[in-house]
Amino acid sequence: MRLATISTAEGLRLHVRGRSGYVDAAKATGEPRYSALNAVLEDGAAALDALRPLAGQDGTEYAEQDFGPAVPAPRRILCLGVNYLEHALEGGRKAPTWPECFVRGADSVTAPFGDLVKPSLVDRFDYEGELGLVIGAGGRYIAAAKAWDAIAGFVVINEGSAREWQRAATQWTPGKNFDGTLPIGPEVVTTDEVDVTDVQLTTRLNGEVMQSARTSQMIVSIPSAIEYLSSFTTLRPGDVIATGTPGGVGFARTPPVWLQPGDVIEVEIEGVGAIRNRVEAEGVDLSDWPWHAPTPQNATL
Predict the structure, then answer these.
(1) Phi first, then psi: what are they for 293, rounded to 5°?
(2) How far apart are CA 270 and CA 215, in angstroms?
């Protein structure tokens, strides 16, 4: 089953991809709570099962610009960093022996076909194509063998990163949390629909392939990631886990490639879908703003 959050005259509403078009989940089931993804996830497997018959119905066709973030209001986004060996090496690192982890907030989330906002305070704006996990049942101390039971589905992510802000200090949070820098979508694809353990991930910038890898190349596998993250926090319905990006990011290229207004960046994951975003300038004059991150002379951000 494929779930999309779509902008309608009544606001953002959860839809199921039907035999044709998309079916409004709340209207079709008569359950008002099912107008929002998080409510469905909180109600558990029974709610997802109630939506499955909608996949056989005819629905409404929508334009790409009508699609909102597939997870429009995640409680939080837990992100794994340096989770592909090639990405570690291109950044001058060895393969980590302990998972790298940081957190994003919901304000960084944006639509799968909307604008990717280049912040006014950022020159070194980078792309990171990633597979995202959407938590369903969740829980605490989830063993790797039970990890798949905690996941509701999968999304495509582009983690827009402000590199000079990411590396200005020892913590990555500022560079990973500018508003409107994390497209998520286009749909939440449920776990019974696709096996993501070994699928192709491709990132294209203005049509040119920049990243190409398979999810089987992750250093910390999906089950291990669930086990690790649930060791220190309770995973709850609607949480999103970004599983890390492969090699080929902009900072590691010679010369470095930074996203500029007018660029079009696409991330596609086999069996999950593709997102496409045009980079747009934030458009705020902050030349006199006191906080500008230092720009390192080298490119190993």
Answers:
(1) -65, 145
(2) 10
Six-digit token string for 268: 């596609």
Q: Are 183 and 175 in contact (CB under 8 A)?
A: no
- End-to-end, the C-alpha distance of the chain in Å comes to 39
Strand partners, 155: 132
Pick the closest to residue 108 from 69, 146, 81, 135 (CA basis): 69
C-beta separation of 139 from 150 below 8 A: yes
Compute φ and ψ for 274, nearest 5 degrees: -145, 140
Q: Whole-structure pTM over 0.85, yes or no? A: yes
Q: Which fold does the domain 77-281 belong to in CATH?
A: Fumarylacetoacetate hydrolase; domain 2 (3.90.850)
CA dist 114 and 35 (Å) reads 21
- pLDDT, one tens digit per residue, over 223-263 is 999 999 999 999 999 999 999 999 999 999 999 999 999 99
258 vs 249: CA distance, rounded Å = 9
- Structural domain boundaries of the chain? 2-62, 77-281
For residues 90 and 252, the answer to whether their CB atoms sit within 8 Å is yes
